[in-house]
Amino acid sequence: MNRLRELREDKDLYQKDIAKYLNMSQTGYSQYETETNDIPTNVLKKLADFYQTSIDYLLYRTDERKPYKKSIVKDDD
Fold first, then answer.
1. Which of 16, 31, 35, 76 could form a disulfide with 26 if both were Cys (CB 3.0 to 4.6 A apart)?
2. Contacts of 48 (CB under 8 A, 6+ apart)
3. How do the domains of the chain map onto residue ranges?
4. Residue pair 21/13 in contact by the 8 Å Cβ criterion
5. What is this structure's pTM?
6. Alpha helices, H only, the chain
């Protein structure tokens, strides 16, 4: 199962709920879950923060769901 879908369903949310959080259409968000479209970096950051995980977890680069420690470098988002 897609990680974005799994995380969303774990929180009992619908695609429209996440789309609203990201200020985009449900159809646009759906294309991220189905891997039809690549996810922009700023959206990955928001999703990782929302789900309290890492971008690496969202992109299957790790199976560790726990987020990394925050950087001391200021984040523009």
1. 16
2. 54, 55, 57, 58, 67
3. 3-58
4. no
5. 0.84
6. 3-10, 15-22, 26-33, 41-51, 55-58
